[in-house]
């Protein structure tokens, strides 16, 4: 895997890519970037107004017309995901890329004070929802010649850190989910990898580090080389990896 990537113009032409949490932060930039490089993007997120704004921005820039899927991953059931798969099959005929980006931080708290409802919400949004969504979308992913599944991990998903409780555990689980899928589909065209974005200027980062000068952080745009690489055919054959979008 390269430590930088200069994406050729149109590298994602004719690709169909679904992005969760596409209304804000890293997911929003990923959606705009994938569309800029030619992909038709399916924008999934909780707040419809944010998704509509991303849709408008893509259309205004002359990108392929996106689709919008308002869905709260906290309450979504297997049926929601199955209906989504059927709609994708009917509208697009297949799915080439799946970016699991939506995430819930919760609140940083000492282990002794972790409360069960918060723990369960974070596991639901960060682990169970990506598992169910991947399961439901596998049939349409298999209709692609080079399907790519990308999960979003974190530094605290590789080494635990005090007070990061449920969020950190959910990111370890994300790494595990990715590895299991990569191993099970090792002899197929399906590839699965994790991106660790690293410290990035978004509202989630500001919530975790309220005192920090956000201007000193990398922006979502700085990370896009790796997102483009993993979604493009240039990464065919790369699977089971956990990669840093801000390599040391
Ligand atoms: P943001 O909080 O800026 O954006 C998260 C996105 O996920 C939002 O669009 C949000 O939608 C969506 N989302 C949250 N909960 C749900 C839900 N229940 N259902 C549907 N969508 C939901 O976060 P970032 O862009 O910073 O983070 C993106 C990913 O990167 C996350 O997985 C995060 O854990 C990871 N990450 C981020 C780092 C950073 O420094 N920023 C570092 C390491 C990892 P809405 O706006 O409508 O609530």
TrEMBL record:
<keyword id="KW-0560">Oxidoreductase</keyword>
<dbReference type="InterPro" id="IPR020904">
    <property type="entry name" value="Sc_DH/Rdtase_CS"/>
</dbReference>
<protein>
    <submittedName>
        <fullName>Putative oxoacyl-(Acyl carrier protein) reductase</fullName>
    </submittedName>
</protein>
<dbReference type="InterPro" id="IPR036291">
    <property type="entry name" value="NAD(P)-bd_dom_sf"/>
</dbReference>
<dbReference type="Pfam" id="PF00106">
    <property type="entry name" value="adh_short"/>
</dbReference>
<dbReference type="InterPro" id="IPR002347">
    <property type="entry name" value="SDR_fam"/>
</dbReference>
<comment type="similarity">
    <text>Belongs to the short-chain dehydrogenases/reductases (SDR) family.</text>
</comment>
<dbReference type="GO" id="GO:0016491">
    <property type="term" value="F:oxidoreductase activity"/>
</dbReference>
């Amino acid at each position: 895997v390269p430590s930088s990537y200069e994406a050729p113009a149109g590298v994602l032409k004719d690709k169909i890519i679904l992005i969760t949490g596409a209304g804000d932060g890293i997911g929003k930039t990923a959606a705009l970037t994938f569309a800029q490089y030619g992909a038709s993007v399916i924008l999934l997120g909780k707040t419809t107004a944010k998704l509509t704004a991303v849709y408008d921005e893509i259309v205004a820039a002359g990108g392929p017309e996106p689709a919008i899927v308002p869905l709260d991953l906290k309450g979504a059931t297997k049926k929601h995901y199955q209906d989504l798969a059927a709609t994708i099959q009917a509208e697009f005929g297949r799915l080439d890329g799946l970016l699991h980006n939506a995430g819930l931080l919760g609140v940083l708290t000492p282990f002794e004070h972790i409360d069960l409802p918060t723990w369960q919400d974070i596991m639901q949004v960060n682990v169970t929802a990506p598992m169910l969504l991947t399961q439901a979308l596998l049939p349409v992913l298999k209709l692609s010649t080079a399907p790519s599944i990308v999960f979003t991990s974190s530094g605290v998903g590789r080494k635990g850190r005090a007070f990061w409780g449920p969020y950190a555990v959910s990111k370890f689980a994300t790494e595990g989910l990715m590895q299991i899928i990569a191993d099970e589909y090792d002899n197929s065209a399906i590839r699965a990898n994790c991106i660790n974005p690293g410290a990035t200027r978004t509202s989630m980062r500001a919530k975790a580090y309220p005192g920090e000068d956000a201007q000193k952080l990398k922006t979502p745009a700085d990370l896009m080389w790796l997102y483009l690489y993993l979604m493009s055919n240039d990464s065919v054959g790369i699977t089971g990896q956990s990669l840093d979008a801000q390599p040391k």
